[in-house]
Amino acid sequence: MTQDAPETKIVDSYKVVCDGGEGGHPRVFLQIPVEQGWVECPYCDCKFVHKDAADKAA
Fold first, then answer.
1. 7 φ, ψ to 5°?
2. Cross-strand bridge partners of residue 31
3. What is d(CA 52, CA 23) in angstroms, rounded to the nearest whole number?
4. Are the C-beta atoms of 46 and 40 separated by less than 8 Å?
5. Nearest 10 degrees: Cα torsion 17, 58, 52, 8
6. What whole-number distance in Å separates Cα of residue 50 and Cα of residue 12?
7. With contact defined as beta carbons under 8 Å apart, do 17 and 27 qualify?
8. Helix, strand or coil for residue 36?
9. Rounded to the nearest 5 degrees, what angle is found at the Cα of 56, between the Cα atoms of 38 and 15?
10. Cα gap 18→44, rounded to integer Å
11. Strand, coil or helix: what is 55?
12. What are the distances in angstroms from CA 19 to CA 1, 16, 57, 58?
């Protein structure tokens, strides 16, 4: 059995919201650390990358 890789989203804001898509998990509000440039959802592992850090996070 294989699992799909977690989704990666390029975003414009340092504050993001994740609900796993179609109510997949409780809604969580996440803050992207400016120095890191990305954050992962603790529920679904979706990675949110700020557009200014997209090259570094790839």
1. -75, 150
2. 15
3. 29
4. yes
5. -20
6. 6
7. yes
8. coil
9. 20
10. 9
11. helix
12. 25, 10, 22, 23
Q: Which CATH architecture has domain 8-57?
A: Sandwich (2.60)
DSSP-assigned beta bridge partners for residue 39: 48
Measured CA to CA, the distance from residue 41 to residue 58 in angstroms comes to: 17
Evaluate whether 40 touches 14 at the Cβ level (below 8 Å).
no
Instruction: For residue range 4-54, list pLDDT tens digits in order.
Output: 668 999 999 999 999 988 778 999 999 999 999 999 999 999 999 999 998
Record the pTM.
0.84
Q: How many CB atoms lie within 10 A of CB 1?
A: 2
Element (H, E) at 35: none
